[in-house]
Amino acid sequence: MRQIDESDFGVATAPDEVRFERLLPGPVERVWAYLTEADRRRQWLAGGEMEPRAGGTAQLVFRHSEFTDEEPPARYREMNENGFLSEGRILAWDPPRLLAMTWPGEGEDSQVEFELFREGDRVRLVVTHKRLADRGEMINVSGGWHAHLAVLEAVLSGEKAQPFWSQITALEATYTGRFDRQ
């Protein structure tokens, strides 16, 4: 299991935006498949079908029990056990380089952009979550992306992922402090 280092943390690039970078095992087509194919995506984030085109729908069915058997915090218990459907729209579809989509929130939709860059036999994944409603949402999605990307990295590396839910509260506290200093 890989140790977390400073480069794993998301960076606030604007008051309503956070960016993450991960260097993952390639090839780039494999990483693209884990972003876009429901059966692979459910292993680290959420299942659900995507229409492979700009303007298409992006269904994300969050059921964390599909990739962790750890007991969730009370506020996530129903989603963990029963699933939660989130439906967005594909904004950009340029395989295997760029995927962007809306991300439904409690007010206006935010946007998530996944960019893939070949680096030898590895792939740099850049995830940028934009148009976040407020600081609370920024902290929440930062902890979530951090933990989900750790699961993706473990899956792609053929390793056991760190416990998912036990990280969330600690990550949210860490991001609160980090964003206070930025």
UniProtKB/TrEMBL annotation:
The family this protein is said to belong to: Belongs to the AHA1 family.
Superkingdom of the organism of origin: Bacteria
Classification via Gene3D superfamilies: 3.30.530.20
Name this polypeptide is given: Activator of Hsp90 ATPase 1 family protein
Domain Activator of Hsp90 ATPase homologue 1/2-like C-terminal: 27-156
